[in-house]
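Reviewer comment 2.1 asked that we show a complete input and output for one of the modelled complexes. We chose the 2-phosphoglycolic acid case, as it is the one discussed in the main text.
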Amino acid sequence: MDKERKLIIAGNWKMNKTVAESLDLANGLVRELKDVTEVDIAICPPFTALSEVSKVVIDSNIRLGAQNMSENDYGAHTGEIAAGMLKEFSAKYVILGHSERRQYQRESDELVAAKAKAAHETGLKPIVCVGEQLEDRESGRTEEIVGSQVRGSVAGLTADQMEGTVVAYEPVWAIGTGKTATSAQAQEVHAFIRNLLGDIFDEDTAVRVRIQYGGSVKPDNARELMGQADVDGALVGGASLEVRKFSEIILNSI
Ligand code: PGA
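Response of the prediction step:
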């Protein structure tokens, strides 16, 4: 597949996998994907498995990501984890503002923006998630909602930092439901996001930002989704928990 932007496919393991299970999955992926150079690959295990998984992937083509981080560098923030601590495990990416955190932990765009800034300042690349709820889509408010999430969540980034940020468009109604956005629906919102980034930053920055699609990505729909002009990768939940499925998504996307 010939695209200017290199695809980035990341697995979001969410709150799944013990350390032993994480090692099995990571070892299997290293084996299956060792020859892939066309796609940037990342896996985002739970915090508790980062240390062990980092040893498995360190010399491979698979990069490590975390699923969240604090906007603070250190100090009295019980239960929180700072970007610098993630760097200790050679993490390269961090997922920020996932819809589950927006919904259950009440994360705001403002908080996501502060985390994204802190991630860049520590040398981590944020994967900033946005996406509308079903009722937003049904009432024709997709662009309004996604647009305001994008604006709020990248506020304060420099153009260089934006270029190194991955945006993940994940319609909430498609997450874990088996309902995927059609490739046309995905492309429409991705193009909207890219245009908006052009307005907020500049055209050159906007054409370089990678925008992932997320929401029930599977081996059999990956190719068509990745084939869309403004779809530059995938953020995969459920199907990233099995070696075969996650590998096939990547291999089918090349
Ligand atoms: P899903 O999750 O692939 O299970 O729909 C995607 C995500 O939440 O990142």
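Residues 98 and 153 are 11 Å apart (CA to CA). We note this here for comparison with the apo prediction described in Section 3.2.
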